[in-house]
Amino acid sequence: MSTIEKSPPTSAAAPEPQRPRSHVRSALRGDVLFAVVAFGVAVLAILPGRDGAGTSISTMQLVASMAAMTVAAVGLNLLVGYTKLVSLGQGGFYAIGAYASAYLTLDVGLPPLLAILGALTLCGAIGAVVAVSSMRLRGPQFAVITLVLAVLVERILNEGNAFGRLAGYPNYAEHDTTSMEPVSVFGITFRPPMIAGEVATVMVPIVVVTVLVLIIARNIAKSPWGSSLSAIGESEMLAAHLGVNVFRRKISVFVLASVLGGLGGVIVTQAFAHLQPETFDIYLTITIVLAVVFGGSGTILGPLVGAVAIVWLEQSDILAEIGSFQQENISDTWYLSTSGLVGVLFILTLFLMPRGIVGTAGQLLATVMHSRAAGPDAASAELTAGAAADQRAEDGAAAATTSTGQHARVERPPAASGPDTAEPMLRISGLSKNFGGLRAVAEMDLAVDGGQIHAIIGPNGAGKSTLANLLTGVYQPTEGTVTFLGRDLTGQAPHHVSRAGVARTFQTPQLFHDATVRANVLAGFADTGRTPLWAAALKPPGRYRRDAEMRAEADRLLDLVGLGDVAELRASELPYGKQRSLEIARALAGEPQLIVLDEPAAGLLATESVVLGDLLLSLRAEGFALVVVEHHMDLVARIADQVTCMDQGRLLARGTPSEVLSDEAVVAAYLGKPHEEGTH
Amino acid sequence: MEPVILGLVLGGLYALLAQSFVLTFITTKTLNFAVGEFVALGAFATIAVSSWSWLPSFGRVAVGFLAASVVGALAYRFIVLPFTTQGEHDTRWLLSTVALSFVMLNLITNVEGPSPQRSGTARLGGSVDVLGVGVSKQQLLLAVLAVVISLILIVVSQRTSIGLVMRAVSQDPETTSLMGISPRLVGMGAYAVAMGLAGLAGVLYAATVGASPVMGAPLLVASIAVAVIGGLGSLWGPLLGGALYGVLSEVASFQYGAIWGETAGLLLVIAVLVWKPEGLLGRRMEVKL
To answer: What's the pLDDT tens digit per position in A410-435?
Structure first.
């Protein structure tokens, strides 16, 4: 608020028309640059094999292994890095992709491209089954179920007769050959790097596919679809309140990761033309996880860097040399060889570089840039200036309201247009919730209209937060109905409620602490829940425009709540009061018509609480309906049109603030009789 | 009938190991994915002292238990604990214990060599007749031991102050530490007992199949499956899970071949997790906002 007062309208308004277009241009430039560099590196990687010299065969095989590992790791990164679901099953999908594409070609007789497509579909289908069955699990249980899958696949490959067991696939006994025919498409034969003097043409599609996968993953990570994954990783409840169908999105990301795991396997099949079951063991699945963590989980380039580094380490002589060095200098028997050293590397990475190579490098770079631009100084000076201004704002509530009204417009919500104009925007009737024997909320009624602030007060354990949770779909009501804009929202899941136009803030701010303030607001747009996967992956031109629009809108909302100057800071760097403002800005980004605020003033300084009051009043003036669960009576008295006081789940009193606050029963509930500290 | 009895007996071995998962899970909310290597560690520690004729065989078994238990406590302190500091969504310990399993497996292989070694300690020869089915005495011992140890753990956790401390630490380590109890020490204690049990299982198992570095790997998946089926939060869970998993996998492999035995057991895990994610005997935790 205060920052708005200080900054003249021109500074925000003047570059406004220019901004979106320049954002589109710089985003486009970034994407093109990434693609050009990626293809350039890919060409350099396969250049040594251009004349098919015998000496280049091992290099080409190394590049192919790196490419396969990269593709699988990119898929796993979407799960582990963004969605924070630790899967130990990626090696299983890798193996399925490799074996299924070979089996469908050799034993079923499909054309190779169809076989590859079939193998990827199979991976996706198995991924979908595993995902549906494990979606309620988190942490160790999810890891266990994916590990079970990887083990199952390993056993079947090692013991199933159809796959030749230890003879490998294909093998002499079954197929009269130990290597698959190279794929031919339109007269071009894609030969694997095996025979000296023959150009390993398959390397071209391998690196092209790898680069495309990287580009697609980058698009996804930077899209609203990607932020929905981060939201799920932060808190599924939060993601649902941002309008994300958490169940479906988790299944989609798991299927996508499975398909990419399978694609890694397909690359192996094409590059080596022969499969051995013992190479697809638990060690492999863990190596893929290591590649992600080592490179930097949750970063775009992390899986690539990690996969390249791990494959190179394993294939080079370095680890073997470290092993023999120990044997010579420490002990003949008490030493670690390759797999043990990889384990040590894994533990050291977790200790010393939890963000991985790319994450750590990025952090260092950011620190250097930060100190050079004197960023933090400027920002913190801004924050202190803001606090000082907060002081001044105390006496000028009306001034603040008008100043917000002038140049920081809120998207005016369309007038409440239910079928019946007499019907209020939100109507709750007879709503009850039982937790076992406890009746947390009993037969509550509530009606709120646009341009109204309805405060809900009551002693601890009165059921206020439960009511808020019933309203936004966290809990299913035991009985009663919730109607919003003429739609029945009773018992709807949080993402349905959110999409219907109800946003909310939480008792303890639920933010993406590592993301910037602006990114937090961006996650609040409806796009987070609505962008389809294909659009996120392919990034059609409309996406660029929408991204620029969203960015401009996010900056406007940040100005509105007084955070315009700290948009680039990390959310965790904000003081507590500003974090609450940020949550409100994020709620506004979803263009809601009703905002439910759960104790927005809890933990705020008196001055901050006044600024918050100004903000809420300005939102009311814009036509929003607000339901505010609050303890601070001075705030309630100042802003509320109507106050409902609850006690032990029931309606105790209702009316204007002055009526309710002077009600004897209300005073008694707060002061008169002792109450047990309940949950809320 | 035969596969059912054999399945129950086999389930005993898995249940014993599953108990070590449950023990660490209810106190520290972590699982040690290196349990398989602690099985091998216990077995090899006992073999290492098998030439000490002055030590009675009970003592040699105890050496196996203690070796695994000391390493287990250290593993918790240095490999698990540092990776549990970021709240309940922190799963880095999962990766660090997997990495520990790599390191231990590699080290044991380099020291002891890959081929199985005979272990004569605590070996019971012959078999006994259970309901008309011949069961090897050694396997029966493991199954009986699993039941006895489970019962002891249940009594200890419900009737003694140690159990109270364990449950308190698992529910709220922060508050417990305010009461003057060190969650770190309790965690190390839990890991010591849990890995000791794994070592014990290794000693007794090695007497039948011999000790080898990879002997624990197949047991890891089966026992973790058993623990998940029963419920990671319940000390009764491993007994029920072990019985179900053992019988189902024996019956399936008896009917359709060995590969289907394991597959059926693992499919059971998936089925249980879909139906009751907290396991058959686990209790569901309400998420609060």
So the answer is: 444 444 444 445 678 888 888 888 88
